[in-house]
């Protein structure tokens, strides 16, 4: 059988929770990709300059980082986790609905900041909850979770495309400099957006057309509404909504007698409470914990190096998606604007396909092997792009390969580090935050270098970043060995946490609900 029956059984046991967490990541992908193809229409709507409208993009990414950093505080009970997911998913629909009413760039930036904060909370909580449920079997389900980001990111520009203005509104600066061309196409990394860049930035006297992009936002708001409704229905089934108790048994109650640990029973004396030094809380609570001084250096370095690897790899994802168009239209490639416009879509499609392909692979292979293969593949791909820097064909092939290799690094790293730490650290919050920081910082850094050194530096930056990420991963492997030796030593019981980890496959969710009901 291609998938082990035990994995199928685990999924069936937690299917409602799992499908709900996957659906909220569709909201995440839907929200993260719409700004690119609609940015010029929003510029016309707010009567702003291009430099002003780019701060809207930054506000979303910055607040996404903040939301990711503090999202772990909502994990303490199942009620708080699901409530945060419900409110966050509902906020995304509300933001989609009110964006057409934002006629000022400041109002638009505030709206996007709120949506970014909601996306950050979704990112952290959904990852934490799946890791908590499946623990050592979480790699397969994390791959599927991150597939839905790519799926939502592909749907968003498809919805927006029929409503995009072809000629602009005539309030652009009229200067066709390279930096303006770059910013437009960095933000409009959509396969569907095939507007001619030169025409978009030249004034169009007498050719203004009224934008109908507000219909796209309202359609996306409606499409996203089933997601918060799905979260609310899960809360109803789990009897977490006050004054609205379901008559059917709770989902987990029906399976509690069938639950067993994947590595054997923990014994009757297992206490179901979070570890004080970890337990997937937010970063700030992890840093404040008094028990941290008792933990070995390897414990901290696994967090740091895992986060730095994702800082680099997710930075490559953000930089490549944002700047591949600029590289393609400049010499020596000199592709047409229409042909170059497909590169970003190929990249995102490859990431989506790669995450789908990684679902069965993560069951067959250990996360560390997939990480090694993907990091090495990304380096080789960028190296080949550097060697064949004049080949238009290989640029498309290399873009596809780059997306495939980078697609599953985040979920594999998450599963790998959580497994190393025996699900007692703060790896999920650290990795989600580091990945968001990398994507934001690397876009600014690589963009500045391209502007001063030329388009060829785009691939050089990618090669350097990928090599640094691989070196950091080697360091992570070394500290993994050190940590494993530490755990095998006689000091394990006294130095590490006193409480064992929660029982796997749903027992932590049961505990969260019991805490909610008794409070």
UniProtKB/TrEMBL annotation:
Which UniProt keyword terms apply here?
Answer: Membrane, Transmembrane, Transmembrane helix
Record-linked InterPro entries = MFS, MFS_trans_sf
The membrane topology noted for this protein in its Swiss-Prot or TrEMBL record is: Multi-pass membrane protein
Which Gene Ontology cellular-component terms appear in the entry?
membrane
**Compartment(s) where it occurs, according to its Swiss-Prot or TrEMBL record:** Membrane
Q: What is its main location?
A: membrane
Q: Which GO terms describe its molecular function?
A: transmembrane transporter activity
Q: Where is this region: Disordered?
A: 493-519
The portions of this protein that span the membrane are: 21-40, 52-74, 81-99, 105-128, 140-160, 215-236, 299-327, 339-358, 370-389, 395-416, 428-450, 456-479
Q: Which Gene3D superfamilies match?
A: MFS general substrate transporter like domains
Keyword Membrane annotated: yes
- Family membership: Belongs to the major facilitator superfamily.
Q: What is this protein called?
A: Major facilitator superfamily domain-containing protein 4A
Q: Which organism is it from?
A: Scomber scombrus (Atlantic mackerel)
């Amino acid at each position: 059988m291609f998938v082990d029956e035990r994995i199928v059984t685990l999924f069936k046991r937690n299917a409602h929770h799992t499908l709900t967490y996957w659906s909220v990541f569709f909201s995440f992908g839907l929200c993260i990709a719409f700004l690119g193809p609609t940015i010029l229409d929003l510029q016309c709507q707010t009567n702003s300059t291009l430099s002003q409208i780019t701060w809207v993009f930054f506000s979303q990414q910055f607040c996404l980082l903040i939301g990711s950093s503090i999202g772990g505080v909502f994990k303490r009970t199942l009620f708080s986790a699901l409530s945060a997911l419900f409110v966050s998913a509902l906020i995304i629909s509300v933001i989609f609905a009110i964006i057409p009413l934002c006629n000022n760039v400041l109002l638009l930036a505030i709206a996007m900041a709120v949506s970014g904060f909601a996306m950050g909370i979704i990112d952290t909580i959904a990852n934490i909850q799946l890791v908590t449920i499946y623990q050592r079997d979480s790699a397969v389900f994390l791959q599927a979770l991150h597939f839905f980001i790519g799926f939502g990111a592909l749907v968003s520009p498809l919805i927006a495309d029929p409503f995009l203005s072809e000629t602009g509104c005539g309030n652009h600066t009229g200067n066709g400099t390279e930096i303006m061309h770059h910013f437009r196409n960095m933000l409009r990394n959509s396969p569907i957006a095939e507007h001619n860049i030169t025409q978009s930035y030249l004034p169009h006297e007498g050719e203004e057309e009224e934008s109908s992009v507000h219909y796209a936002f309202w359609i996306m708001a409606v499409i996203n509404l089933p997601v918060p409704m799905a979260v609310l229905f899960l809360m109803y089934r789990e009897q977490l909504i006050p004054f609205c108790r379901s008559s059917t048994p709770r989902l987990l109650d029906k399976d509690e007698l069938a639950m067993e640990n994947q590595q054997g029973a923990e014994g009757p004396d297992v206490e179901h409470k979070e570890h004080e030094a970890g337990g997937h809380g937010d970063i700030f609570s992890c840093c404040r914990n008094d028990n941290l001084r008792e933990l070995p250096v390897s414990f901290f370095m696994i967090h740091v190096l895992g986060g730095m690897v994702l800082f680099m790899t997710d930075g490559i994802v953000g930089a490549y998606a944002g700047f591949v168009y600029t590289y393609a239209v400049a010499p020596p490639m000199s592709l047409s604007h229409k042909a170059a416009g497909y590169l970003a879509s190929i990249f995102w499609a490859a990431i989506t396909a790669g995450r789908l392909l990684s679902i069965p692979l993560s069951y067959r292979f250990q996360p560390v092997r997939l990480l090694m293969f993907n990091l090495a593949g990304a380096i080789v791909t960028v190296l080949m792009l550097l060697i064949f820097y004049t080949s238009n064909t290989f640029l498309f092939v290399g873009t596809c390969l780059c997306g495939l290799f980078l697609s599953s690094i985040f979920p594999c790293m998450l599963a790998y580090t959580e497994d190393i730490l025996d699900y007692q650290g703060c790896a999920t919050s650290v990795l989600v935050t580091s990945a968001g920081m990398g994507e934001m910082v690397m876009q600014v850094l690589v963009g500045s270098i391209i502007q001063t050194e030329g388009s060829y530096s785009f691939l050089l930056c990618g090669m350097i970043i990928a090599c640094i990420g691989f070196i950091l991963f080697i360091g992570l492997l070394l500290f993994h060995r050190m940590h494993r030796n530490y755990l095998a030593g006689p000091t394990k019981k006294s130095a590490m946490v006193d409480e064992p980890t929660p029982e796997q496959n749903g027992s932590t969710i049961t505990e969260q609900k019991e805490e909610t009901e008794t409070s």
